[in-house]
Design goal:
Elements (H helix, E strand, L loop, with lengths): L28 E3 L2 E3 L2 H4 L9 E5 L6 E6 L3 H20 L2 H17 L1 H12 L3 H23 L7 E4 L2 E9 L2 E5 L5 H14 L3 E5 L6 H10 L8 E3 L4 H10 L5 E5 L2 H14 L2 E5 L4 E5 L5 H11 L11 E7 L3 H12 L21 H16 L3 E4 L14 E4 L6 H4 L6 E7 L2 H9 L3 E2 L1 E5 L3 H6 L8 E4 L14 E2 L2 E2 L4 H7 L1 E9 L3
Bound molecules: nicotinamide-adenine-dinucleotide.
Length: 509
């Protein structure tokens, strides 16, 4: 089967901006209830220069804005504000916090169109993906509001003669949060919702590449939250992110990002013995057995392997298919993936896939493709870059992937699905587990016993059967092994952002 020709990138009306200058948020930190410049500039000291990060539109490479690049002093002032706000915030009742979280969800929904356009501008996402991000962000706050009210520990009990034990659930304190660029507001919401519901205050650093929707969010909800409860410091990982991990007055640091950043955060947090919550990379296997509904599996991979242009930690990108059905499945998948429409978010409703987030990431993804093809992989669809401007990569299916090769093991984080074959169920399950990651996996089978048993042998935090990448606020999300530890979403997230206290009362007479 020859690779399909590379499609053109749909551009649309690129003369009309997705977001006007007046709609942009303040391009600086949000600390103690107000937008403030970086401490370096505010000091007025001779020679004090404020640094900024250039925010680029990945769909055409143009500059959108310059955003303040914070430093240690900005984190320190945000942590002070968070610490001051903590006693009052943690004393509010779950109902009071829920009322605020529900108002935040309403505010997101009332401003959904602007947030969707901002997210598409900053990330290049098609509108359909941004719509999903913003609607799930609102739902995350709604869930956290309800979960916070239903969040109880076990009741009191007597376990030692004359003593009653009461288990209390308390906030951890001040939480430092670092999030990535692939779902800017959604990843922030996954942290902010449960952290606030559990009674903590926080300082959050958005990705230096995609701070716009998070700053807009802060602007939109500023009047709903007491000053200092939510603080945003913009800037780079090795400075702002590193200070959040090392700061002695932060009780827990939560990072969603790459394995390298996770390692840096956990190492630095170890010095102050603060708690760590890590949502890291993934390399999700998709195991297609010989009894699977192959058409359903191909359609499932079309969505789960390429959603957000494959810049998705749970993306189903590594197909392991039984050799007896490999040819048929590859044909069906090629048909599915060959029909993708790639474009600028201004290209209209037909656009399903956008660009890579940056030139550096585009180089990284095309580098993976070049090396895999040089290594003998066969591009059945796509296989390389699409024409610029912007950082577009063709939706790609690579067959004939050697087990253990780079393309089979590493997180490519682009619109690339690889296909390997297997002979036995044991082999499939063993090889599926042979990646450093453990975030998500799927199994495709019509055998009822296999659908119950196979997931038990898979070392991944989420295992879907005959589905992939279906999420809900009620169910936990998080990984094993190199994908980190801790859970986002669900009551488990509130648990992770809480601490347990035992109070024992001696009532013997
Ligand atoms: P990244 O690790 O480069 O950056 C993530 C965040 O960490 C950014 O805000 C960055 O500034 C910060 N950072 C970088 N170095 C740091 C340091 N030394 N100390 C503290 N913070 C630091 O990741 P990315 O490229 O933005 O995002 C893609 C990665 O995120 C992928 O590996 C993806 O799988 C992962 N991810 C995981 C999940 C999940 O739920 N498990 C969700 C989304 C993304």
């Amino acid at each position: 089967m020859a690779a399909t020709p590379a499609p053109a990138v749909v551009r649309g009306d690129t003369t009309t901006p997705l977001v006007t200058a007046a709609e942009l948020p303040p391009l600086t930190h949000f600390i103690d209830g107000a937008f403030v410049e970086s401490a370096a500039g505010a000091s007025g000291a001779a020679g004090a220069a404020t640094s900024t990060t250039t925010i680029v539109n990945p769909a055409d490479g143009t500059t959108i804005a310059e955003v303040a690049e914070g430093e240690t002093a900005d984190v320190d002032s945000a942590v002070d504000a968070s610490r001051r706000a903590l006693p009052a915030w943690k004393s509010t009742t779950p109902k009071e916090r829920a009322d605020i979280l529900l108002a935040i969800a309403d505010r997101i929904e009332d401003n959904a169109d602007l947030l969707i356009r901002l997210e598409s501008l900053n990330t290049g996402k098609p509108r359909v993906v941004s719509e999903d991000d913003i609607s799930m962000s609102a739902d995350t706050f709604r869930f956290a509001a309800g979960a916070g009210r239903a969040f109880t520990e076990m009741g009191a009990g007597d376990y030692v003669e004359g003593h009653t034990s009461v288990i209390l659930r308390e906030p951890v304190g001040v939480v430092g949060v670092v999030v990535p660029w692939n779902y800017p507001l959604l990843m922030a919401a996954w942290k902010i919702g449960p952290i606030l519901a559990a009674g903590n205050t926080l300082v959050l650093k958005p990705s230096e590449q995609t701070p716009l929707s998070t700053l807009k969010f802060a602007e939109l909800v500023a009047d709903l939250l007491p000053a200092g409860v939510l603080n945003i410091v913009t800037g780079l990982g090795p400075s702002v992110g590193a200070r959040l991990s090392s700061h002695p007055d932060i009780d827990l640091v939560a990072l969603t990002g790459s394995v390298g950043s996770g390692r840096a955060v956990a190492t630095s947090a170890g010095e102050s013995l603060k708690r760590v919550h890590l949502e890291l990379g993934g390399k999700a296997p998709v195991i297609v057995f010989d009894d699977a509904d192959l058409q359903a599996a191909a359609e499932g991979v079309r969505n789960a392997g390429y959603w957000n242009s494959g810049q998705e930690c749970g993306a189903g990108t590594r197909v392991l298919v039984h050799s007896s059905v490999a040819e048929k499945f590859t044909e069906l998948l090629a048909e599915q993936v060959g029909s993708y429409t790639v474009g600028d978010p201004r290209g209209g409703e037909s656009v399903e896939l956008g660009p890579m987030i940056s030139e550096a990431h585009f180089e990284r993804v095309t580098g993976f493709l070049d090396r895999a093809i040089a290594d003998g992989a066969k591009p059945v669809v796509g296989g390389g870059a699409l024409e610029g401007p912007g950082f577009f990569v063709a939706s790609t299916v690579l067959a004939k992937i050697a087990p253990g090769s780079e393309a089979s093991q590493e997180e490519i984080f682009g619109p690339v699905v690889t296909i390997e074959t297997f002979e036995t169920e044991d082999e499939a399950l063993t090889r599926a587990n042979e990646v450093p990651y453990g975030l998500a996996a799927s199994v495709w089978t019509t055998d009822a016993a296999r659908s119950l048993d196979a997931p038990r042998h898979l070392d991944f935090g989420t295992v879907w059967v005959n589905s992939h990448l279906v999420l809900a606020a009620e169910v936990p999300w998080g990984g094993f092994k190199g994908s980190g530890y801790g859970r986002d979403l669900s009551i488990y997230a509130l648990n992770d952002f809480s601490r347990t206290k035992h109070v024992q009362i001696n009532h013997s007479r």
